[in-house]
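sry for the spam today, last one i promise. struct tokens for design, 211 residues
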């Protein structure tokens, strides 16, 4: 019996965040069930029992323990399976910097990056035109965000310090989408950010999931 079942969707950056976490640990003992979002399977009674907002991803363990929200799932799996993506709990300073970096990604990056992904990728598959006003505002917000990150990364190799952690990994799926949508300049025009991204993109797990 597999350790758990991951319910996700093809093309879901949130699902890819979990797959990438597991790949970092070389963990393969799980089932991956893909829901068809185009058919509305995420709103089915079965999926609503796993995720009350009718979204993906979620994970379900044989004892019926269920967890949703990708960032919470990634952190839980990293702890449960000792995937080296978390600072030592005994290091209070490193843990505080880690939590700070997680908050930065969630509060300042994920929303504008997600809007670009939705407008430029999701809407394309839905046969709808992108709202370029929304896109332009999101690009401006990301430009301002990466201007700050450029300064921060001049003093540290990764987002939360000297080691690669979930604070870096959480960015990967949406940055991959930005790059594929023609917004690579947001990364490549800033030397410290570009160096950070090259290091992240070169990791075996990143190459495995996004090759």
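last one done:
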């Amino acid at each position: 019996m597999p350790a758990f079942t991951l319910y996700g969707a093809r093309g879901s950056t949130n699902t890819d965040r979990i797959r990438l976490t597991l790949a970092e640990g070389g963990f393969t003992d799980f089932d991956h069930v893909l829901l068809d979002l185009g058919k509305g399977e995420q709103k089915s009674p079965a999926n609503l029992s796993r995720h009350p907002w009718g979204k993906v991803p979620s994970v379900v363990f044989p004892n019926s323990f269920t967890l949703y929200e990708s960032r919470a799932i990634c952190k839980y799996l990293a702890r449960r399976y000792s995937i080296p993506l978390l600072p030592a709990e005994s290091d209070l300073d490193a843990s505080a910097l880690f939590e700070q970096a997680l908050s930065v990604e969630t509060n300042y990056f994920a929303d504008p990056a997600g809007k670009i992904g939705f407008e430029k990728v999701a809407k394309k598959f839905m046969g709808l035109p992108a709202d370029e006003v929304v896109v332009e505002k999101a690009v401006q917000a990301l430009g301002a965000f990466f201007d700050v990150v450029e300064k921060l990364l001049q003093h540290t190799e990764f987002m939360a310090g000297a080691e690669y952690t979930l604070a870096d990994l959480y960015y990967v799926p949406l940055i991959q989408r930005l790059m594929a949508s023609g917004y690579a300049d947001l990364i490549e025009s800033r030397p410290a950010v570009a160096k950070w991204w090259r290091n992240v993109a070169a990791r075996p797990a990143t190459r495995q999931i996004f090759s």
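The CA atoms of residues 25 and 83 lie 5 Å apart. ok im logging off now
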